[in-house]
Known about the structure:
By secondary structure, the protein is mainly beta.
Amino acid sequence: AVMHNGELQQVAPPMELYREPANQFVAGFIGTPAMNFLRRDGVVIGVRPHQLIVGADALRYAAPLIGRVWLIEPVGSEQIVHVALPDTPDLVAVVPSDRVIETGEELPIAFPPDAMHRFDRSTGRRLPP
Length: 129
């Protein structure tokens, strides 16, 4: 069960909370690093850091974002990459540690359509796919 400010948000097994969060709070609370959120036309789009496509592979997707890497956290077999974007909150991506990424590098980033979660901007509720 996930509670927030004394209110029950969702009751489900852990992987269901991760894969199908009932709302934006649950989506941001479950998982490390936390889900990335971008605001778009009345909807908040969320994508987990492990599901972002970064680098040349992102160029296969429509309208990839271009950001600048400002921090890389090596954590064993993975690295957590923090990317600054203009006029948008920073994104966090998790990529294999053997992938060469440099601080200051410009990096294309794409949100795969099947990995996106959509949330109502006013209520925070998850919208159907």
